[in-house]
């Protein structure tokens, strides 16, 4: 599975759907994410929990390390796929209203041909496989 920043933040911040996301996260054979998703998760967790960027980075890093997550590179192919995702599902173009980070998560999951773990309803309005 590819893990979006929203799922990482929800799990670490113990949001209302954290237990369900954690259950799906822990059942995955392989967990992948990207440096962009890590960046978004670190900033999102720091903001939502009013903690330092350093503490947030440690928490995100520990979660991903414990899960043996692979941080995949953002290739030119993934970049093009993110542009296509925006064209199809981006804000102002589609009810899913994907933003830049969402488009890259979508593109990463599609390029790896794996389901996407996320929080919210935005990706559910696309054709991505849900983890």
Give a written overview of the molecule.
- With 131 residues, the protein is mainly α.
- It has one domain (2-119): 5'-nuclease (Rossmann fold), CATH 3.40.50.
- Helix content is 56%, strand content 8%.
- The protein contains six helices and four strands; from the N terminus they run E-H-H-E-H-H-E-H-H-E.
- The chain has helices spanning 5-12, 18-27, 35-49, 53-66, 76-89, 100-112; strands at residues 2-3, 32-34, 70-72, 116-117.
- The strands form two sheets. A two-stranded parallel ribbon has the order 1-4. A two-stranded parallel ribbon has the order 2-3.
- Helix 1 packs across helix 2 (18-27), helix 1 (5-12) runs parallel beside helix 3 and helix 3 packs across helix 4.
- The radius of gyration is 14 Å and the shape is globular.
- The model has no long low-confidence stretch (mean pLDDT 96).
């Amino acid at each position: 599975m590819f893990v979006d920043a929203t799922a990482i933040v929800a799990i670490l911040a113990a949001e209302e759907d954290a237990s369900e996301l954690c259950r799906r996260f822990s059942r995955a054979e392989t967990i992948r994410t990207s440096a962009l998703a890590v960046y978004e998760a670190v900033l999102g967790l720091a903001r939502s929990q009013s903690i330092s960027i350093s503490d947030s980075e440690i928490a995100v890093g520990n979660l991903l390390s414990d899960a043996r997550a692979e941080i995949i590179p953002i290739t030119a192919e993934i970049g093009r796929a993110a542009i296509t995702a925006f064209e199809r599902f981006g804000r102002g173009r589609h009810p899913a209203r994907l933003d830049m980070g969402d488009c890259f998560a979508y593109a990463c999951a599609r390029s790896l041909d794996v389901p996407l773990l996320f929080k919210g309803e935005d990706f559910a309005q696309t054709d991505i496989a849900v983890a």
